Description:
Layout: E1 2-3, E2 38-43, H1 58-67, E3 72-74, E4 81-83, E5 86-91, E6 96-101, H2 115-126, H3 144-147, E7 162-166, E8 169-173, H4 196-199, H5 201-206, E9 214-220, E10 224-229, E11 243-248, H6 252-261, E12 266-267, H7 278-282, E13 286-298, H8 311-320, H9 324-332, E14 336-338, H10 348-351, H11 366-375, E15 384-389, H12 393-410, E16 416-421, H13 424-432, E17 440-445, H14 451-459, H15 473-484, H16 488-505, E18 509-520, E19 524-525, E20 541-542
Parallel strand pairs: 2-11, 15-16
Antiparallel strand pairs: 1-17, 3-4, 5-6, 6-8, 7-8, 9-10, 10-11, 12-18, 13-17, 13-18, 14-18, 19-20
Helix pairs in contact: 8-11, 11-12, 14-15, 14-16, 15-16
Amino acid sequence: xxxATHARGAACAVVVALAATACGGGGSGGGGGGESxxxxxxxxxxxxxxxxxxxxxxxxxxxLDMIFRGLKKYDPKTGKATDMLAQKxxxxxxxxxxxxxKDGWTFSNGEKVTAKSFVDAWNYGASLRNxxxxxxxFGYIQGYDKVHPxxxxxxxxxxxxxxxxxxxxxxxxxxxxxxxxxxxxxxxxFAPLPQSFFTxxxxxLKQPVGDGPYRIEAYTKGSQMALKKxxxxxxxxxxxxxxxTLKVYTDNDTAYxxxxxxxxxxxxxxxxxxLKNVKNDLGDRYINTPAGIIQTLAFPYYDSAWNKSGSxxxxxxxxxxxxxxxxxDTIFQNTRTPATDWTSPVLGTAGGFKEGLCGSACDYDxxxxxxxxxxxxxxxxxxxKITYNADTGSHRMWVDAVCNSINNAxxxxxxxxxxxxxxxxxxxxxxxxxxMTGPFRAGWQMDYPLIQNFLQPLYYTNASxxxxxxxxxDFDKLVDQANAQTDTAKAVSTFxxxxxxxxxxxxxIPLWYQNGSAGYSERLSNVALNPFSVPVYxxxxxx
Length: 543
């Protein structure tokens, strides 16, 4: 998911231009402002309207996690996929699934959640004409090639692999075996949708309606979103507070300052510039925990300068020119760890994390770096420009440090420079329009804790988050083989072979694994981040 920012993103910087005065300001209800029992939290406007199948960045994902519940839910402590609306998911061949949903679930508008709520939502998400960013997640369902062809118009309106049996049951036929398919169903793209989404789409977009523990009360773009506890929520994970007010910030430092001043309750991404102060400022109210997030440098393979013979040597040389340990120690102070593969330690070895898989290509070796760049034909255009969004201070800091490291290794103080873009929204739009001419910062926040999610959405040909348009037939073939494995260990091993193809081509440069970091006010208790680095809002208590 998420471009991290979801990434999913990971991770995401804040999005729109906003005067700092609109960010803080206490209300009548004590620290953080607002009414009793409601907490305030830093946030950024989503890139797109909050359609579940069209949200693949972290800020929008935070809201979807509060207002929707799907067939599965990821445990806030372990990340394990557990049944939520699913009563059971049966299969005898890992290709044909019968899904039974639980009784008693409704949307916050009172509409009953049925099997049709899921089937209609998935058909909408997959349809080419709806142009949903997460359409790719439905690609394994039979008939996807008809509703979302690679070229031309769609020849079907619905996925032939989806069938409603009755109110509680539907079947899913995939176009190949995919043993981990049930574990993906906690991702927001697979959320159910009420009929009001289809009958009054414009109205739904203004005030989205879901089936989660919160409902959206009001949203002013560039300012804030007010979510309130939904008293009729039927799930066991009911909100332990009266609501959450998400306040938009364009500068994480301003958010942190507001927290310290008592004008904000929760900052869920402590800026790098404040890490030296945070323990003294907050003590035990500072959280720093491992998360399923990796930061990388991606490349525009649609630009022939980066997609010609020998360019893999240039990319590998650049990787070896980056002193990851020095940068993470100096700038990030125990909140980042140098990456040695393309996944996350959160997965564990059984889940696919393999420390050192990158090998020497991720070791700092200035002499070899310079040699490889020269052998590969040198830097395209003679200079490396790393594009990043400038609306958070930490990106500028690490990009400057990466460029300094590359310049030292190559013996040229103008070899690498930063190329800032004003806002995250503008940055992502330029990436989506394929306007990158050199490497750009990329982050990935896992959508679900599977090695597949760190590889396929990012590197498979034409995948949903393959922003650089890298394509490799060997990689694609291995991913398909891994997905078809019914033995988990064999599937993981095959995915790691695919990851070896990413390494050998240096499809993207892994930089560091990211911890989730947060700070909160004295009004709050029971604050935690889940393995996706998102606050577990529904468990937070307000005094």
